[in-house]
User: Which sequence fits this backbone?
C-alpha cells in the first residue's frame, strides 16, 4: 500500500465522494475538497466567518481568527452524484450547501428555535434531512423547490429511520401519544404520507429495512430480547424471542444482502440467524473459549511495530489445531457491564459474516455462509487476534473477501481470501501494515473508497489515505 502524508481534520468528517474522485474533510469551520489522485486542494469554504468587530478587537492570532467551537462543522457529506456538499453546525443550527462546480453558489438552512442534532442527505441528493432537538420533528428540505416537509416526533435521529434500496420510500419510527408508531413516506412525491401504523414494540430501540424493501425489522429496548418482522403495510409477519430468554435486549440486527436471513445479536454472546420463511432461528452462532481444530487463529506478532519501525508489513502468526482464548466474564447484576455482539456486518455477497464481541475486544470472528445451492450450515472460518482492542472493522464494498481493521495503533490490519497460493489456488492471508507517519499517529477509524481501492485512516485530529499499488504501476 502507498500512504499519503497526514492532514488535519476535526470531528472525523472525512469522506470519499461517491465516484471516489474527491475527498471531503472538515477542519474546524472550514470545508476542504481534495483530488484523490494528487491530494491537492481544489475547493475550500468557510461557514464561520467572524464579524468585522471580532477582527478589529482580536489580537490573539495575527495570522487569522480561530473559530469558536460553536461554529465548527459537526456534519458534512456528499450528495449521491457528488454535485453538492453540505456542512452543518449543530450548535448554531445552520446547514450550508455548496456546489462543487460553482464555488460562488451556496444555500443556507436555518433551523431556528427547534435546534439541530443531525443533518444528512436523502439518497436522491436533492433533499436534506434535519433532525431537531428533543425529538420534535424531522424537516426535509428540497433544493429544487426551496420548500420544506415536516414530520413530527421521530424517536431516534441516529438509527430510527431507513430508506428503501431504490430510495422510493422513507420509513421513520415515531412516537405519538406515548406509543411507538411507524410512518412510510413517498420520497418521490415530496415525502407524502403513504402508511402510518402502530408498532408492536413498547419501547422501540431501532429498525432495519430488508434489502428488498418488503420487510421491516423492529426490536425492543435493552429490557426485552424481542424482534418483530413487519410488512410495509404494518402487518406482523413474525416475532422472535430466544429460549431461554437471556433477560437483556438486542444490540444489533443485520439483514443478509439477499434479504433471506437476518442476523440478530444481543447481550448473551449468541448470534441467531433467522430465515425469511418462518422467522425462527435457522442457526445459532455462539462465542466459545475453545477454537476447534481445522479453524485458523491468526495472531498478531508481538512487538512487530518496533521491529519494523512502523514502516513495513508482516504476516499474522497462523495457528492451527485446538486453541484457547480468554473470555472476560461479566456480572450482569452490576451496571455498565460490557458483553454481547458489538458489531455484525455481512460482506458484499453475504458469504461471510464479521462478528465482534464486547467481552473479547481483541478478537474478530469471521463466519462462512454457504451458497444458496448448498446445505445451510454456517461455520466459523477463522479468528483474528490482536494485541489491543479492535476499534473498527470494515468490509471492502467491492471485493467480497477483503477486510480492514484498526486498533488505535500506528498501523492497519487486513484479511483477504483472495491470496494466490503456490498451487495457484486462492487462500486466506492476514497482514499487519505499519503507517509510515513522521509524528505520533494512531488509526482510530477507517473508511473504504466506493471503488474499494483506497482507505481513509483517521486519528483524533489528523487523517491520511492509503491506496493499493496496482500490479502494472511503474515505480
Assistant:
Amino acid at each position: 500500500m502507498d500512504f499519503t502524508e497526514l492532514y488535519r481534520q476535526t470531528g472525523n468528517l472525512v469522506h470519499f465522494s461517491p465516484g471516489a474522485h474527491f475527498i471531503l474533510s472538515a477542519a474546524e469551520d472550514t470545508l476542504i475538497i481534495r483530488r484523490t489522485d494528487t491530494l491537492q486542494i481544489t475547493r475550500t469554504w468557510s461557514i464561520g466567518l467572524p464579524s468585522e468587530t471580532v477582527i478589529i478587537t482580536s489580537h490573539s492570532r495575527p495570522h487569522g481568527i480561530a473559530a469558536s467551537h460553536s461554529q465548527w462543522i459537526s456534519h458534512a457529506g456528499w450528495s449521491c452524484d457528488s454535485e453538492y456538499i453540505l456542512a452543518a453546525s449543530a450548535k448554531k443550527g445552520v446547514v450550508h450547501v455548496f456546489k462543487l462546480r460553482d464555488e460562488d453558489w451556496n444555500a443556507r438552512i436555518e433551523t431556528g428555535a427547534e435546534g439541530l442534532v443531525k443533518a444528512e442527505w436523502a439518497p436522491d441528493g436533492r433533499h436534506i434531512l434535519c433532525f431537531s432537538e428533543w425529538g420534535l420533528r424531522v424537516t426535509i428540505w428540497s433544493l429544487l423547490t426551496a420548500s420544506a416537509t415536516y414530520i413530527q416526533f421521530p424517536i431516534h435521529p441516529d438509527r430510527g429511520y431507513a430508506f428503501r434500496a431504490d430510495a422510493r420510500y422513507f420509513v421513520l419510527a415515531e412516537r405519538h401519544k406515548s406509543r411507538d408508531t411507524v410512518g412510510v413516506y413517498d420520497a418521490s412525491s415530496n415525502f407524502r404520507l403513504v402508511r402510518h401504523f402502530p408498532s408492536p414494540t413498547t419501547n422501540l430501540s431501532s429498525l432495519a429495512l430488508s434489502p428488498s424493501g418488503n420487510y421491516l425489522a423492529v426490536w425492543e429496548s435493552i429490557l426485552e430480547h424481542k424482534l418483530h418482522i413487519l410488512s410495509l403495510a404494518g402487518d406482523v409477519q413474525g416475532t422472535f424471542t430466544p429460549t431461554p430468554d437471556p433477560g437483556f435486549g438486542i444490540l444489533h440486527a443485520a439483514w443478509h444482502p439477499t434479504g433471506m436471513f437476518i442476523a440478530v445479536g444481543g447481550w448473551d454472546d449468541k448470534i441467531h440467524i433467522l430465515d425469511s420463511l418462518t422467522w425462527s432461528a435457522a442457526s445459532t452462532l455462539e462465542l466459545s473459549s475453545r477454537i476447534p481444530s481445522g479453524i485458523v487463529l491468526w495472531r498478531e506478532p508481538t512487538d512487530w511495530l518496533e521491529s519494523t519501525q512502523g514502516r513495513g508489513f508482516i504476516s499474522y502468526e497462523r495457528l492451527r489445531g485446538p486453541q484457547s482464548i480468554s473470555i472476560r466474564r461479566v456480572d450482569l447484576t452490576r451496571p455498565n457491564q460490557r458483553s454481547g455482539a458489538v458489531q455484525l456486518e455481512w460482506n458484499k455477497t453475504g458469504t461471510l459474516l464479521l462478528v465482534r464481541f464486547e467481552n473479547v475486544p481483541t478478537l474478530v470472528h469471521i463466519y462462512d455462509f454457504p451458497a444458496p445451492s448448498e446445505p445451510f450450515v454456517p461455520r466459523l472460518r477463522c479468528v483474528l487476534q490482536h494485541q489491543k482492542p479492535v476499534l473498527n472493522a470494515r468490509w471492502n464494498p467491492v471485493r467480497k473477501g477483503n477486510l480492514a481493521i484498526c486498533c488505535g495503533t500506528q498501523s492497519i490490519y487486513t484479511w483477504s481470501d483472495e491470496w494466490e497460493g503456490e498451487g495457484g489456488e486462492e487462500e486466506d492471508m492476514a497482514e499487519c501494515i505499519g503507517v509510515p507517519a513522521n509524528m505520533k499517529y494512531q488509526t482510530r477509524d477507517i473508511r473504504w473508497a466506493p471503488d474499494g481501492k483506497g482507505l481513509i485512516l483517521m486519528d483524533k485530529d489528523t487523517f491520511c489515505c492509503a491506496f493499493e499499488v496496482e500490479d502494472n504501476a511503474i515505480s
